[in-house]
Specification:
There is one protein chain. The chain is α/β, with parallel strands linked by helices and 442 residues long. The chain has two domains: 273 residues, 3-Layer(aba) Sandwich (Rossmann fold), CATH 3.40.50; 142 residues, Rossmann fold (3-Layer(aba) Sandwich). It is built from 15 helices and 14 strands. Strands 3-4-2-1-5-6-7-8 form an eight-stranded mixed beta sheet, with helices on both faces. Helix 1 links the parallel strand 1 and strand 2. Helix 1 packs across helix 15 and helix 10 packs across helix 13. It is globular and about 65 Å long. It starts with a strand and ends with a helix.
């Protein structure tokens, strides 16, 4: 087959599950197919003509930078909405597609994509598929009877990636530049990013939402309609969980697709390699940003109540932010570590807790922890709940507290859960996954 994958970019410049998955999938597919990976690159603010540049890479698939895309906000929110809907000359994209003559174009995101490209693919009768890594472009306010009234406020649900007041177009041009790509991991830029993230997090917790004027409301409404029309142009959805399927179908009730849990390269099943011995005290793990939508504050609030009567150690991985709670001896901030160290951490947890408040479309940390033999308590919003027994899924804060208390007071509970992990049927081979994607989705 001839396949075009559209993604945010390649690791390490782009981080997270989406770039990792799309890169690993492309690598596997390229063993038996002709694969082209397309991503949004730098913007010339004085040009509306898309330019394609082939990159020299180590991969077995071709990599093409799409220059002068629409802005990529990375879920930070939007401002200058008209820039996200600007007309683009897609002649280069049309010529590229005509030359490749793909069997399928697989989108992993709509960030940077002009709607005209989807219009062209539909008209050319080329199969268009989409993997639901997140809900970028979908705003729950659009499901209301009077969406414009709700759009007066910049505050929205944890799932919305549009309503927050995002970076300016000028800042996005810098963030998508080649210079920034090369300097992103420099000491100075890392410090600026860390300080900036801390400030954004603080504002998210303490500030009141902005009230927008009529003109801004109209622009925001048009942008949401723009994205909704893009979702309606997808021929077939790859839902990476039942959670994402249910959420997408609220906006596109007629959406056709199939649920196939995702995976990535380099995973191995180590469940039977080490015999589990409970820690004293019990070690509870958390991996992810220390923010509201990931359930960090709900989780730590529960732990603060439990520490009055129970002894445990709570370890946190995955963020650069320091929180006051880490001054407590029961709570330890390990920050961001390498994948090898994180794998070792999974093995040392008695239980991993994933308390997300937003509808997390999958969540690699659950699959990674299970493969190390570590059971996971997950909220009903976490897509990777599809992998665990129903007894490990909690609905709210009170139910999380009950399940954690059961682990802490019952010395046999964590041992039983570890035995349960060994009985789970976990599909993690990227090779087998690529075969299934090709057969069921393409």
């Amino acid at each position: 087959m001839k396949i075009i994958e559209y993604t945010l970019g390649l690791p390490p410049y782009r981080r997270g599950g989406l770039p990792r998955y799309s890169t690993d999938l492309s690598t596997e597919l390229a063993k038996n197919n002709e694969v082209y990976l397309l991503y949004p690159g730098q913007i010339n603010p004085f040009s509306k003509k898309i330019v394609l540049k082939k990159k020299k890479v180590k991969y077995a698939f071709s990599v093409i930078e799409m220059q002068n895309p629409l802005p990529v906000s990375l879920g930070l929110g939007t401002i200058d909405e008209e820039k996200y809907m600007e007309e683009r000359d897609i002649t280069a994209l049309k010529r590229f597609v005509e030359k490749v003559n793909p069997d399928v174009v697989h989108f992993h995101t709509f960030m940077g994509v002009p709607k005209a490209f989807l219009d062209y693919l539909n008209q050319a009768k080329i199969r268009v598929v989409y993997t639901t890594h997140d809900f970028y472009g979908l705003c729950p306010k659009m499901l209301a009877t009077s969406p414009k009234e709700l759009l007066r406020s910049s505050r929205c649900s944890y799932d919305c990636m549009l309503c927050n007041i995002g970076p300016s177009f000028k800042k996005i041009v810098i963030m998508q530049s080649h210079a920034y790509e090369h300097l992103k991991d420099s000491t100075v830029v890392k410090k600026l990013r860390s300080d900036g993230k801390a400030k954004v997090s603080l504002l998210d917790e303490e500030s009141d939402p902005e009230v927008l004027d009529k003109e801004e409301i109209e622009k925001r409404y048009r942008l949401r309609k723009y994205y909704l029309e893009m979702y309606q142009k997808i021929d077939f959805f790859h839902f990476n969980s039942s959670v994402s399927e249910q959420y997408i179908k609220k906006f596109v009730p007629t959406a056709k697709g199939k649920v196939i849990p995702i995976t990535h390269n380099g995973l191995s099943d180590n469940r039977s390699k080490v015999e589990y011995v409970p820690n004293t005290p019990i070690r509870l793990g958390y991996v992810g940003p220390y923010d509201k939508k990931k359930g960090f504050f709900v989780y730590t609030r529960v732990l603060q109540r439990l520490e009055k009567t129970e002894n445990f150690r709570a370890e946190f991985y995955g963020d650069v932010i320091e929180r006051p709670i880490f001054l407590d001896e029961h709570f330890e901030n390990r920050g961001i570590v390498s994948s090898n160290k994180l794998t070792e951490a999974y093995r040392n947890f008695d239980v991993l807790v994933v308390p997300s408040l937003w509808h997390e479309t999958f969540g690699f940390v659950v699959l990674e922890a299970l493969l190390q033999g570590t059971p996971c308590l997950v909220s009903k919003n976490v897509g990777s709940q599809d992998l665990v027994p129903s007894e490990w899924i909690f609905d709210d804060e009170d139910e999380l507290e009950k399940k954690l208390l059961d682990v802490l007071v019952n010395s046999k509970r964590s041992t039983f859960m570890h035995r349960e992990v060994n009985r789970l049927r976990l599909q993690f081979s990227i090779e087998n996954h690529a075969i299934e994607i090709e057969r069921e989705i393409y």
